[in-house]
Amino acid sequence: MACSDSNRRVLSIQSHVVSGYVGNKAAVFPLQLLEFEVDIINSVQFSNHTGYPNGWEGDVLDGDRLLKLVDGLDRNGLLSGADAESGRIGHVLTGYIGTESFLRAVVVVVKKLKDLNSKCRFVCDPVLGDRGKFYVPKELVEIYRNEVLPLADVITPNQFEVEQLTGISIHNIKDAQSACDILHGLGVPLVLITSVVFGEGDDGKEENKLITPSNSIGMFASRDGAAVEQYLLYTPKFEGQFTGTGDLCASLFLGLTARGDETTRDALEKLAGTMHAIVKRTSQCAKVGSEEGDTAEKANVVFSREMKLVQSQNDILHPPRLFRAQRVD
Predict the structure, then answer these.
(1) What is the pLDDT of residues 132-141, one digit of tens each?
(2) 296: Cα within 13 Å, side-chain hemisphere
(3) Of 3, 257, 258, 262, which sits with the fewest C-beta atoms within 10 Å of its C-beta?
């Protein structure tokens, strides 16, 4: 193994929680298992994720402080190697970003790292919301579309986020393909829609024939190139909400696609297998709670749904091939 390899070093800029697995707590451990060195910047430091019934405590990093942290790294040669023509950072991974100033500071950081290393990949999870609800100010959509996505090499949005970024409501496979065409047009070579449901029935139209099976959820990958290569895969859906799965998914996809020799189909199938194994293990440990219970009971239920990452090391290192991706033309 090389003593120093920029392709195995990641700068991860995401949220952090003391207890639980979201943001960097969900992303860093899998990357380290896969033998990546991870430099960590916590955009927030909270006691727990925001789904707990009694709130949270903590601090938020602003854009100026992010740039100061990066400046400190730069002054000490931690961004550029001894060889002035090479950068130390091979990948930038970003997740939840809650303010315009911080998102624009991330743009500055990514441009700097790409200037230092032309091969540096930017893997962006454009966290906006889910299930019709925004988690961040709507103003961030335009910044992502106009300033962030043109820099990204890989993006990992969910269905809601794709719809916001492209203006296309996704009802069927043709809608998903059209949305990905727009994202490719913005300069993103590889798009992974991490969760998608096609809701229209088969009315005889070709675009409506790939219907999401009941109790399943789809993953759709689209790679731009001489010819666009697209794959669709379905996995079983588990009851309940498991926070941090998007952060984990982006992290694993970075790891699976880092070397460049993994096919899109293989990366998608391995990703789906690992994600399914982790969520299934978590689901088996999850408690069933009542909305009528006291806050202590509710907190216990939320805690039981924290992802079982440590217990899933083997599934991260050796992804089970449980699902078959189908090529979509």
Answers:
(1) 899 999 999 9
(2) 0
(3) 3
pLDDT recorded at residue 202 = 44
Residue 37 forms beta bridges with which residues? 9
* Among 20, 11, 72, 64, CA closest to 45: 20
**Amino acid making up residue 112:** K
For the four alpha carbons of 285, 291, 292 and 298, in that order, the dihedral sign comes to: positive
CB 233 within 8 Å of CB 269 = yes
**Is residue 247 flagged as an active site residue?**
yes
Question: 247, 261, 266, 329: which one is catalytic?
Answer: 247
Q: Are 33 and 317 in contact (CB under 8 A)?
A: yes
Inter-residue contact 63 to 71 (CB < 8 Å): no
Q: What are phi and psi of 146, to 5 degrees?
A: -95, -25
Structure tokens at 143: 């910044």
- SS3 (DSSP) at 125: coil
- Length of the chain measured in residues: 329
Classify 134 as helix, strand or coil: strand
Q: How far apart are CA 127 and CA 306, in angstroms?
A: 19
Taking the C-alpha atoms of residue 48 and residue 25, their distance in angstroms, rounded to an integer, is 11
